[in-house]
Amino acid sequence: MDREREHNEADAKLFAPMLETGRPFYLTVGVLLALVLWGIYAWLTQYRWGLGVTGLNRPVYWGFYITNFVFFIGISHAGTLVSAILRLCQAEWRRSITRSAEVITVLVLFFGVANILADLGRPDRVLNVIKHGQFHSPLLWDVTSVATYLTASSIYLYLPLIPDLALLRDKLQMLQSEGRLTSLFMRFRRRLYAWLALGWTGTERQQRRLNRAISVMAVLVIPIAVSVHTVVSWVFAMTIQPMWHSTIFGPYFVTGAIFSGIAALILAMAIIRRVYHLEEYLKPIHFNHLGVLLLVMTLLWLYFTFAEHLTSYYGAEPAHMRVFWTKVTGRYAPEFWAMVVCCFIIPFSLLSRRRTRTITGTVIASVAVIIGMWLERFTIVVPTLVNPRLPYERGLYSPTWVEVAITVGCFAMFILLYVVFTKLFPIISIWEVREGRERALQEAAERIKTYLPGEEVEEVGIGVLS
Amino acid sequence: MPRWAMVIDLDKCTGCQACVIACKAENNIPFVSPEQAAMGRTISWMEVIPIVEGEYPRVRVRYIPRPCMQCDNPPCTKVCPVYATFKNEEGLVAQIYPRCIGCRYCTAACPYTVKYFNWYAPQWPEEMRACLNPDVSTRPKGVVEKCTFCHHRLQKAKEKARAEQRELREGDYVPACVQSCPAGAMFFGDLDDPMSTVAQLARSARAFRLLDDLGTEPKVIYLIEGEWYGPRKRA
């Protein structure tokens, strides 16, 4: 019990956001809520009058919504994929960042789906996708893989949350017995945590089962995550339209997804760290490591982008070249070159030097990457549609306030849900940090011994793979 | 089963757009305001595409009337998630308006850009409402539509032939655009019947199809302008 108290004192800061709420929180919620309402109003307008209230037209049938869809699904790769890979690699520095990553995945997926709904001319008929679903359509593949991913990543978020829910249950129980749990809401929360914790007491057997379940999910979730963004890219690549019909779109989109996902994670971590004073848990070393990962993805992104555009340019098919020049020197050149600056020049110059790979440096790079990756999705979707193969009058696309409001509303709602999550559940996995503090040092030392030549050391099963 | 096809002789086409208007009247195509038209929201199942070649002073304009190509291998039907667009047993690419969810995947996938979307609920001036064709359903907002080769006329022609206890003859079923062409530039019939006009014209050395190399197997066949027009590329 003494050890428990020691831990509780050490981790008081992790509990604080869930127990105390101040004015900044209500202010944030208020602002976000206002933006969400604006988005909802825009959507109602669109529902009432039809998609005519957007800037979409013929031939630019897809615009902001499809861009947002691809973008949000991309961001969702932050979490589960990064967290699963770090867990499987037994990267010890993962302990304080996995939760914040997994939450991004689950929450942001809803906004990917929301944008598809916003894009439909007949959202009232969306269930036709189930009633009359046609599996030869890549959109059905999307529905399937996104639904699978949402399920898997929700389970993957929930499982490591169980011990923390038990901790919260006990904490509130203690407060109640001390008579400090007065509000009805807090009592409701105590019951909620107790229910969600599934009777977790932390016995050896429970621990073993949980670890097993987490590692199974971690392995399972990786191919699902890869499939999700591959299938998203196939929505475009399966058509025969110029600069969509590309075999590298699958890996290109997955790379972009992980790239923007890591950037979103870094940004989220930096904000959490600042707002909840978690400097001890989210240290510069975490940002440095993620910064290196982001750097690797920057280079991969450049490689894919270069390969994709060089192939089109060298082949020089007229239909492809029209799209190519629209992007490189034409109407969408500002977006295209802003993308290159945001996705490569800024992150590469900041992240390639240890001196600038600081918290501030990685955050600036991440913001640039997030903007850049949105622009990337935009410059993939729109320029192809602007250039139909037959010599029609060329389309013009500029979004209306409705599309802007729905986009802003989605971002605001995502942030709002994230903020609410941090107020209800620990955004840093408390038990995993404790486990790290108690056991990881020794385990890591023993593991390192097994890498070294010399005396035969007994294989020790450690971490999630045990 | 016949393979319904259209042949358009570009040598005879004057670019008068009678086919465009006939189509709009026949198929209850809604009107759009000039502002909406400027935004690219016009619906026109049949469209005459002007192709400008050369530079001043040696400029030449060609006109290509463009209905739906009714591809034998349509890129649009493959991608529909709800089977709202499909190749029917007559070989025509059909639309089911009450099922379409309005995702516009088919419109984005069509290499000929022949599919149109109802951005708003359709509108007609009051005087025009009485002129709506009872054989063709009007479309609600939010769904995709396109040229059907006047499929309703095929239904009627079949019924008539059945009532007269005979086979369908050439000329029984003709879309509105073909019927209205004052220059006699458009032909319609069964491509699989070697004696039909369209089959004979399709064998002409002047015959070509739009974006033929995409492998969509369109059933709209064009006859290129004659040699007096000077050498040029096929569209």
Please state the structural category of chain B.
Answer: alpha+beta
**Structure summary, number of beta strands of chain A:** 0
Sheet of most strands of chain B: 4 strands, mixed
Terminal CA distance of chain A: 27 Å
Shape of chain A: globular
Shape of chain B: globular
* Uncertain parts of chain B: none
Largest interface pair: A-B, 46 and 46 residues
Q: What percentage of amino acids of chain A are in beta strands?
A: under 5%
CATH architecture of chain B: 2-Layer Sandwich
Q: Major sheet of chain A: size, sense and barrel closure?
A: none
Radius of gyration of chain B, whole Å? 18 Å
Topology pattern of chain B, helix = H, strand = E: EHHEEHEEHEHEHHEHEE
Kindly describe this structure:
The complex is a heterodimer of chains A (466) and B (235). Chain A is an all-alpha fold. Chain A has 18 helices and no strands. Chain A has a domain of 152 residues. In chain A, helix 4 packs antiparallel against helix 6 and helix 14 packs across helix 15. Chain B has 235 residues and is an alpha+beta fold. Chain B has one domain: Alpha-Beta Plaits, CATH 3.30.70. Chain B is globular, with a radius of gyration of 18 Å. Chains A and B meet through helix 7 and helix 8 of A and strand 2, helix 3, helix 4 and strand 6 of B.
Short overview:
The complex is a heterodimer of chains A (466) and B (235). With 466 residues, chain A is mainly alpha-helical.
From the structure above, extract its key features.
heterodimer; A: mainly alpha; 18 helices; B: 235 residues; alpha+beta; Alpha-Beta Plaits; four-stranded mixed beta sheet; 8 helices
